[in-house]
Amino acid sequence: MLTTHDPNRRFTLDASPEGNPITALLRDHHLVRKLADRYLNSPSTEVRKQAAVQLVQAVHNLERLKETVFYPAVRRVEPNLVAHLEEASLDVDDVLAALQAMAPDDARADALVRELIAAVLHHMQDEETALFPMLQHAAIDLSPVGLEMQAFEANLVHMQARRSDRMTRR
Q1: Count of Cβ atoms closer than 10 Å to residue 12 Cβ
Q2: What pTM was estimated for this model as a whole?
Q3: pLDDT tens readout for residues 78-128
Q4: CATH numbers and ranges of domains, the chain
Q5: What is the pLDDT of residues 10-31, one digit of tens each?
Q6: How far apart are the first and last CA of the chain?
Q7: What CA–CA distance (Å, rounded) separates 33 from 11?
Q8: Which of 16, 18, 28, 73 could connect to 145 by a Cys-Cys bridge, CB 3.0–4.6 Å?
Q9: Helix, strand or coil for residue 76?
Q10: How far is residue 50's CA from residue 43's CA, in Å, rounded to a whole number?
Q11: Nearest CA-CA partner of 52 in 91, 88, 103
Q12: Which of 126, 131, 120 is closest to 60 using CA atoms?
């Protein structure tokens, strides 16, 4: 359930993600922040490489979910803000594409991962401080969006698993 008491508009994570897409997105934001922290603060090169791979995958999935399901569903609440967030998503996508095209040990990867982290953290902050409170106050039922997001995520994970299986068989 979203809280309305905090002047900083912080959200709690106690609602089920299926009934509240904002809760699901906050869960995903938490994962991205955790992976970013691991990448930025680990002294181990191997841990940083693994964190980078996981971070790129998590950000990719999060951006696909928002661009395909969430933003179109909430655009009517504040079209200009959603358009701004969609543009920020495109910036994140550009960095993601560059990272996905290179090996994790490429010399340029560290700078790009850091650029991705900065862009995605800023983008998530904009969502959490501007869009999510606006949606909360719009008093619209977002549970159908939450269910659609859940189905989209399940399909995305399924497709990634199939791709991984095909690559393993080669």
Answers
A1: 11
A2: 0.82
A3: 999 999 999 999 999 999 999 989 987 788 999 999 999 999 999 999 999
A4: 21-169 (1.20.120)
A5: 333 334 445 689 999 999 999 9
A6: 46
A7: 16
A8: 73
A9: coil
A10: 13
A11: 103
A12: 120
